[in-house]
Design a protein that fits this description.
It contains 5 helices and 7 strands, in the order ααββββαβαβαβ. By secondary structure, the chain is α/β, with parallel strands linked by helices.
Length: 213
């Protein structure tokens, strides 16, 4: 592995990030706008082959009140220090099937997996449309969708969805008051970081190779 600085210096390195002057105001407004819509979290018990946990097919209101899908697996036997794991998905994937998500619930942790609006099909299916896409010209993929206006940008919608997923997880009657940890790989890691800062009361985050970070 090639690095620019010795490990001891990398541990304390802080980049000089040029933050826009209205950065905090922008995200506060976006989250407040999203929360002006009732989260309307719906948990429908799903019939699956999973035996160690109850599986719920979830729908909640994300950015602009748009319906966002998710899975929730609540193990029949929980660990003593029960913590809710909220997970986000890598670029191009979707929530897939509950059988794709057995690790955390098998270890005794409630596990909430947010579907990714407009994505899916590259390597796992999804069921959430991007209703906020204004149809502006963009290159293939998602990085330039709506990039001309921060409020219309695709990742503004997705980051707000990620924060609202934390709100939705708390609405299940068995999970209220439990600590929440966000996690994900690649794009999911970037969303985990965004949600940890934009949502309220997240205890920790476990991003893996975070995208857009």
């Amino acid at each position: 592995m090639f690095v620019d600085l010795p490990l001891a210096e990398l541990r304390h390195y802080r980049p000089d990030v040029q933050e826009p002057p209205d950065f905090d105001e922008f995200w506060t407004r976006e989250i407040d706008d999203a929360r002006s819509h009732d989260i309307d979290a719906q948990f429908t018990l799903a019939e699956t082959a999973v035996r160690h946990a109850r599986v719920f097919d979830v729908t909640f209101a994300g950015h602009g009140g748009d319906p966002i899908k998710a899975w929730l697996l609540i193990p029949h036997e929980s660990v003593p220090n029960e913590t809710v794991i909220v997970e986000y998905i890598g670029y191009g994937g979707g929530r897939g099937n509950p059988l794709d998500w057995l690790r955390w619930s098998s270890a005794g942790y409630p596990h909430f997996i947010m579907d990714t609006r407009g994505q899916g099909g590259t390597w796992r299916g999804a069921e959430t449309s991007d209703l906020g896409d204004g149809g502006q010209p963009s290159t293939p993929g998602f990085l330039t969708r709506g990039v001309g206006d921060p409020r219309a940008y695709y990742y503004t919608r997705l980051f707000v969805d990620a924060a609202r997923a934390v709100d939705a997880a708390r609405r299940h009657p068995d999970l209220g008051g439990l600590p929440i940890v966000t996690t994900g790989v690649s794009q999911g890691g970037g969303l985990a970081l965004a949600a940890a800062h934009l949502a309220e009361g997240v205890s920790a985050t476990l991003p893996d190779a975070p995208f857009l970070a």
